[in-house]
């Protein structure tokens, strides 16, 4: 009986541990609120809180997404993110929200969010969206979205959006992180600081023409 009880106890601990590991990307909050003090020089895994007596109702309001983003650029898109860095009231809540504006033909190029899953809701327009799984499959899951549609991009996977309609498009993207982070694939490879060694890029992309690599660097740096 004692051996059985021990086995059950280990099974219970394993079940609880695994359930904790699959919760939201950010840690759970430990108090009612923790408005970010973005002026603090103290660095923690997150953002330090303001003193409770300094918190105001205005800290929990933002109009960041009210204005359309400027899509007059080479990508034809603009992402406006409300995260803990510009909306302090989000601190410790494990959420962020972005407005994405697309010109006709505009794209939000292949990128990843290392700290958050994204749920996209299309308000206006028509998008072609998708994500690619990890090795060895590299399987593409892609769909055409119409107004009112939702699409989820798993945390850490390369994904993209393309406006395939004749009108501007607008989407809202929610994240289960107050700071999901973004890494554009093209910029990370061709516009890193300092640059990645040309030999690495030549091998990875099977490009023998070093002048082409330099041209790609110049083009990506302009986007």
Report the biggest beta sheet as strand number plus sense, adding barrel if it closes. Answer: 5 strands, antiparallel
| Span between termini | 67 Å
- Poorly predicted runs: 16-22
**Spatial order of strands in the largest sheet:** 1-2-9-4-7
Mean pLDDT: 90
Rounded Rg: 21 Å
**What's the β-strand tally?**
10
In quaternary terms, these chains amount to single chain
Secondary structure: helix percent: 10-25%
**What is the global morphology?**
globular
Structural class: alpha+beta
Number of helices: 4
Query: H/E series, N to C?
Result: HEEEEEEEEEEHHH
Strand content: 25-35%
Molecular structure report:
The chain has four helices and ten strands; from the N terminus they run H-E-E-E-E-E-E-E-E-E-E-H-H-H. With 223 residues, it is of the alpha+beta class. The strands form two sheets. Strands 1-2-9-4-7 form a five-stranded antiparallel sheet, with no helix packed on it. Strands 6-5-8-3-10 form a five-stranded antiparallel sheet. A hairpin with a 7-residue loop joins strand 5 and strand 6. The protein is globular. It starts with a helix and ends with a helix. The model is unreliable at 16-22 (pLDDT under 50).
